[in-house]
Amino acid sequence: DEAISELSLNCNPKDANRALYLLAAPAKEMNMDLVKELGDYLRDLAPKAVIRNGDYPREKGVLDVTVILSELDKVEKVRDYYSTSTSLIPEIKQRQEEIKGKLREIEDASKDIPSLL
């Protein structure tokens, strides 16, 4: 639950088409039952995802689970980026025209200067 609650992006795990979980823990505490339980839990959260897993035995006495969700169908933050970028297109075009105009002015101002080449 903690790994899911700390996702860096607000999203619904049910929208994930791929998922990966990495279990890092002391080798003595890792077993297939724990790996299966984590996989089943993630399968409930992301039922349509292709789920991969990995383990990283280590000496430190802490059990960590890292979850990565990818190929998300619906992400509000990404949708907001598209909406914002669409609304900025006219402003960007205006800036480009202003730059072209300034470049033309510079070119016109320099046309009477002899070339050094």
Helix-strand makeup class: alpha+beta
**Share of β-strand residues:** 15-25%
Q: Which topology of the largest domain does CATH recognise? A: 60s Ribosomal Protein L30, Chain: A
- Spatial order of the strands forming the largest sheet: 2-1-3
Tally of DSSP helical segments = 3
User: Secondary-structure element sequence?
Assistant: HEHEEH
Task: Specify the helix fraction band.
Answer: 40-55%
CATH level 1 name of the largest domain: Alpha Beta
Q: Please give the number of β-strands.
A: 3
Number of domains: 2
Radius of gyration: 27 Å
| Major sheet size, sense and barrel closure | 3 strands, mixed
Detail the poorly predicted runs. none
* CA-CA gap between termini: 70 Å
CATH architecture of the largest domain: 2-Layer Sandwich
The coarse silhouette is elongated
Mean pLDDT: 88
Under CATH, the homologous superfamily of the largest domain reads Tubulin/FtsZ, C-terminal domain
Organism: marine sediment metagenome
Pfam family, one: CetZ_C
Keywords: GTP-binding, Nucleotide-binding
GO molecular function, one term: GTP binding
